[in-house]
User: Fold this.
Amino acid sequence: MINYRFLIGIMIFLMGFISANLLNLMAVYGYENPKDLIKINFSDEDPKTPHDIVKDGQIEVYNDKVIINIEDATLSKYAPTGSMIPILNENSNGIRIKPKSEEDIQIGDIITYEKDNILIVHRVIDKGNDSQGNYFLVKGDNNSIADGKVRYKEIKYITIGVIW
Assistant:
C-alpha cells in the first residue's frame, strides 16, 4: 500500500529543492538578488538620470546611419554582473568619453572607475568632500548598497549613451 503522506512530503521537498536551486541559478546568471526580479520602486531613492552631455546639435540622423559628433568617444562592453540591470548588461554597447575635470561628473551619471585593476561601471548617487578631498559615491542600479567613495583620479570614463 502506498503511503500518500510520505509521497506528498517527498514532492514538497523536491519542489522546494528545485525552486531554491533555480533561484540560485538566476543569481549566478545576472541577478544579484532574486527579489530584484520583481523589484518595483517609485521612491525618492530611484537613481537620477544622467545629465545631458550630448546636445541635440551633435546628433545627425539619416536614413542609413546615425552620427554622433563627440570627440574622443570610445565603445564599451559590459561584464554579466547584473549590477546595472535593466540599463546595462553584457549585450549592451556603450559610448563613453574621458572626463576632463571633476565638474564633468554629475549625480545620475554612469561612470567607469578602476579599483584594484578592475573596471567597474556604476551610477554616481552623491558627491561630497572629506579630509582627502572631493569624492563621488557610486552604486549599481541593481545593488542594495553603495560601493563607497570614488576619487576623480580613479574615474576613467563617463557613459554618454547606450545602444541595445
Residues 139 and 147 are 5 Å apart (CA to CA). The chain has two domains: 4-30, 56-163.
